[in-house]
Write a structure and sequence with these properties.
By secondary structure, the chain is of the alpha+beta class. 32% of the residues lie in helices and 23% in strands. The protein has a four-stranded antiparallel beta sheet. The radius of gyration is 17 Å and the shape is globular.
């Protein structure tokens, strides 16, 4: 399969969290296939409508945002670089995950995120940047429609994305943009399903992902953190 863009994601290892996420979004990024949505009561809209935006990205947290491969670079070289990087990065234990409203969407966020989580993401962004093709004028213009701060705009120019380094916040997106009332109703409906998944959470691996011609992301390789 050919890939249009690559990225580095955190994707949960097989288990309850991964199964929930694949079903909720309707796309199993680890296995590259569509899956049936779960049956949840009291949702204000169909799940497919609630998750239309994050569906194609799969259940993940972005570590290095999707990018086009730079001239002269290869998928094999990128895989090898990520594998080497993961050999020098240590797993990051955290207190657990919270269902949180971020702006107009819902996501899972880390309780009291440790500094090591920010450091890990920053290292991945910087060390793998030689593989990233520069952002085009169109890509920059599209990102700037989000009313970026001066700092975010500088990060966009330097790294191709405005929410990296000190602007990074670990999150696993669950919905597209929702109205206040809709977001509150979805949050209430999701809480029972997520209550058993809030146990201590550890980021123990990073995955290289690729975007297919339909805009859906697939896990290509997964590397455990062994530093």
């Amino acid at each position: 399969m050919s890939w249009n863009r690559f990225g580095v994601y955190y994707i949960p290892q097989p288990g309850a969290l991964a199964e929930f996420g694949a079903a909720w979004l309707g796309w199993d990024i680890a296995n590259g296939k569509a899956v049936a949505h779960p049956s949840l009561f009291n949702l204000p809209l169909p799940i497919a409508e609630i998750t239309a935006t994050p569906h194609k990205y799969g259940f993940h947290a972005t570590i290095k945002p999707p990018f086009r491969l730079a001239d002269g670079q290869s998928l094999t070289g990128l895989q090898e670089a990520l594998e080497t990087l993961c050999q020098h990065l240590s797993p990051v234990p955290t207190e657990g995950l919270n269902l949180t409203q971020l702006g107009r969407f819902l996501a899972l966020t880390v309780q009291n995120p440790p500094p090591t989580l920010l450091a890990l993401a920053g290292t991945a962004v910087k060390d793998l940047d030689p593989f990233r093709a520069p952002a085009t004028a169109g890509e920059l213009a599209r990102r700037r429609q989000s009313n970026l701060s001066a700092r975010q705009d500088a990060l966009l120019v330097d790294w191709g994305y405005p929410y990296v380094l000190d602007e990074f916040r670990f999150h696993i997106t669950l919905t597209g943009k929702l109205s206040t009332d809709t977001a509150s109703a979805v949050q209430s409906a999701l809480q029972p399903a997520l209550s058993a998944l809030k146990k201590p959470f550890c980021l123990e691996a990073l995955s290289l992902v690729g975007e297919d011609d339909n805009g859906r992301f697939h896990e290509i390789s997964r590397f455990g953190l062994s530093g």
